[in-house]
Write a structure and sequence with these properties.
The chain has 345 residues and is α/β, with parallel strands linked by helices. It has two domains: 226 residues, DHBP synthase; 105 residues, Threonylcarbamoyl-AMP synthase, C-terminal domain (Rossmann fold, 3-Layer(aba) Sandwich), CATH 3.40.50.11030. It is 31% helix and 18% strand. It is built from eleven helices and 16 strands. The chain binds adenosine monophosphate and magnesium ion. The site of magnesium ion has 3 residues, from loops.
Length: 345
């Protein structure tokens, strides 16, 4: 199959209509959102959603998130929005947040992996919203990467993974936040964060008295409630070692580790902040931005993880961030990318 890439703006009705036509006829199309690029198909069509799993090589027990463009479309997804979800909807939607709610019986089991709940999100990206609107159905869309690989934040990264697997990629430029949506379980007595994202715990605590984090995000032996969180994910080709600790200690720790691995004859790549890279004076580096700007680091993160894939490197050392705010999402992705190979400093 030929994979076409069309550059689009939100006003570009012709291209978005073409994509919507493909969705309506049961095909899979990649499109930009304000988190990462999504791989979309009709969320009410079993066959169409099966194509998403095939294109990604995604395990069938890992459910998909349904994307809606309006409150009216919620009725196609769930019969009853828990009050907690209504509160999140009015505070943060459209935006980078997914609510887990009871599913309507008409939602195929292929979407939910057989669960009685479903993830629903209202993206803010105007291209995504128009695509959903013109398709007339909730669009099931995971990130547009091969399972286990870093999520794509540009059309070029989508193409690298999806070439020959899907008919169309809408290229709307770089995705905004660069990390996937915050997933919040709205079926318990208090909101539980199953996956951290750009809607942060601190932001949720402004509207809820109590917010929990799925224990599996911080403890090794717990089983995560979001099935997708149990898989190795975001992994670059070379093994990655993550450094966790205060930012003042990063330069010393990375310089020491660089020396050690080089001493063992290994070719080292380093992903770090502008501050550390400037002081390190080393060549094989990816600068993920200033350690004073976590949002910039989030938006560069997956490009950083992809950067060394075509370089001659044996091992990647990565500087960790704080776990405050969107830092929790950054560290969650880096920990997964490292396969829990973490050095605490
Ligand atoms: P992706 O869209 O590829 O970024 O992944 C979607 C994430 O949402 C995966 O980790 C899924 O396991 C999770 N997810 C989707 N639906 C549910 C659900 N009903 N309950 C818990 N987690 C879910
Ligand atoms: Mg994904």
């Amino acid at each position: 199959m030929e994979t076409e890439i069309i550059k689009v703006t939100p006003e570009d009705n012709e291209a978005i209509e073409k994509a919507a036509g493909l969705i309506k006829s049961g095909e899979v199309v990649a499109f930009p959102t304000e988190t990462v690029y999504g791989l979309g198909a009709n969320g009410l069509d079993t066959q169409a959603s099966a194509k998403i799993y095939r294109a990604k090589g995604r395990p069938s027990d890992n459910p998909l998130i349904l994307h809606i463009d309006s409150v009216e479309m919620l009725s196609m997804v769930t019969k009853k929005m828990p009050p907690m979800a209504v509160k999140i909807l009015s505070a943060f939607c459209p935006g980078p947040v997914t609510m887990i709610v009871p599913k309507k019986e008409t939602i195929p089991d292929t979407i939910t992996g057989g669960l009685s709940t479903v993830g629903v999100r209202m993206p803010a990206n105007p291209i995504a919203r128009k695509l959903i609107n013109l398709s007339g159905v909730p669009i099931a869309a995971p990130s547009a990467n091969i399972s286990g690989r870093p999520s794509p934040t540009t059309a070029a990264s989508v193409y690298r993974d999806m070439k020959g697997r899907i008919p169309l990629i809408l290229d709307g430029g770089a995705a905004g936040f660069g990390v996937e949506s915050t997933i919040i379980d709205c079926t318990e007595e208090v909101p539980v964060i199953l996956r951290p994202g750009a809607v942060t715990k601190e932001m949720l605590e402004e509207i809820f008295a109590e917010v929990r984090i799925d224990p599996a995000l911080t403890k090794k032996d717990e089983i995560p409630k979001a099935p997708g969180m149990k898989y190795r994910h975001y992994a670059p080709k070379a093994p990655l070692v993550l450094f966790e600790g205060k930012k003042e200690a990063m330069l010393g720790a990375l310089a020491k580790a660089l020396k050690k691995y080089q001493g063992e004859g290994q070719k080292v790549g380093i992903i770090a902040s502008s501050e550390v890279i400037k002081a390190l004076a080393y060549d094989a580096v990816y600068d993920y931005g200033s350690n004073k700007n976590l949002y910039a680091i989030a938006s560069n993160l997956y490009n950083a993880l992809l950067y060394f894939d075509d370089k001659d490197i044996d091992i990647i050392l990565a500087e960790g961030t704080t776990q405050k705010g969107i830092g929790l999402a950054i560290m969650n992705r880096l920990k997964k990318a490292s396969g829990q190979n973490i050095i605490k400093i």
